[in-house]
């Protein structure tokens, strides 16, 4: 097993959080190969992949703030429901692709904040039809050979001015560089696999096999989350719950 610390956002990822992860896993009796890969130590590798996509003409900067995007979405919704991605977030509604190269360079040189987005239509046209090998199941029971539908995500963000990568980009680079052959993760990432297959195809990376599993949910049917004050593993430990009890709770006997 490999352990990867996804700490590309320094404002949200703190050493204390990483230490808590290590302690919780060790308490559960889980061990992993060394060294641990920390994404913050490999930004140059993600930047190189981004530059390859830029060289293909598949990346462009957008300069709208989150507030401006929300306003544009509200305007689009007034004319009929603006499309949402599989996670429920509205697709990018801005005009980044319409800006001239000269105007883009002017704005970037001025220090304006920006996000680097994948031109989804051009990327899909270049990659063609894609699929992945699913050994688990999607939220609706999808299994076996699953057709990738990256277009449902719109022009996803691959990096920002202050961060040369995103989850989508860094995870496929990490998987390839670490020789990952099987990815086991929750069904909340099932649909995002379409974006990952697209990036793998564009960058010439071999796809792993995927196994998406069901999530542990609360009594309302929502996945456990800090934002809903769900009970964390550390709290359960403090209450005297044993590792064996945790495994029974999640169905691992």
Protein model, in words:
- With 253 residues, this protein is α/β, with parallel strands linked by helices.
- The chain folds into two domains: 1-41, no CATH class; 42-215, Rossmann fold.
- The protein is 36% helix and 13% strand.
- The strands form four sheets. It has a three-stranded antiparallel β-sheet.
- Helix 7 links the parallel strand 8 and strand 9.
- Helix 6 crosses helix 7 (193-203).
- It is globular and about 60 Å long.
Q: What quaternary form is this?
A: single chain
Biggest sheet architecture:
3 strands, antiparallel
Number of domains: 2
Percent of sequence in beta strands: 5-15%
The overall pLDDT average reads 93
Poorly predicted runs are none
The gross shape turns out to be globular
Strand order of the largest sheet: 3-4-7
What is the string of helix and strand elements? EHEHEHHEHEEEHEHEHH
Give a quick rundown of the structure.
By secondary structure, the chain is of the alpha/beta class.
How would you describe this structure in keywords?
253 residues; alpha/beta; Rossmann fold; 9 helices; 36% helix
């Amino acid at each position: 097993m490999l352990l990867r610390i996804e700490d590309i956002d320094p404002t949200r990822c703190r050493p204390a959080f990483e230490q808590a992860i290590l302690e919780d896993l060790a308490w559960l009796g889980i061990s992993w190969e060394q060294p641990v890969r920390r994404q913050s130590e490999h930004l140059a590798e993600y930047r190189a992949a981004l530059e390859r996509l830029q060289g293909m003409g598949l990346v462009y900067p957008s300069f709208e703030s989150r507030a401006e995007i929300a306003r544009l979405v509200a305007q689009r919704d007034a004319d009929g429901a603006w499309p949402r991605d599989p996670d429920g977030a509205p697709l990018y509604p801005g005009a980044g692709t319409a800006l001239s190269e000269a105007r883009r360079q002017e704005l970037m040189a001025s220090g304006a904040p920006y996000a680097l987005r994948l031109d989804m239509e051009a990327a899909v046209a270049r990659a063609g039809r894609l699929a992945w090998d699913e050994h688990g199941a999607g939220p609706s029971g999808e299994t076996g050979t699953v057709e990738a539908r990256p277009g449902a995500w719109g022009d996803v963000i691959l990096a920002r001015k202050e961060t040369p990568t995103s989850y989508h980009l860094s995870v496929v680079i990490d998987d390839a560089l670490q020789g990952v052959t099987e990815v086991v993760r929750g069904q909340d990432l099932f649909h995002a696999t379409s974006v990952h297959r697209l990036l793998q195809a564009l960058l010439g990376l071999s796809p792993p096999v995927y196994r998406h599993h069901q999530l542990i949910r609360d009594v309302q049917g929502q996945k456990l989350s800090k934002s809903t004050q769900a009970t964390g593993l550390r709290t359960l430990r403090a209450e005297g719950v044993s590792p064996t009890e945790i495994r029974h709770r999640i169905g691992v006997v």
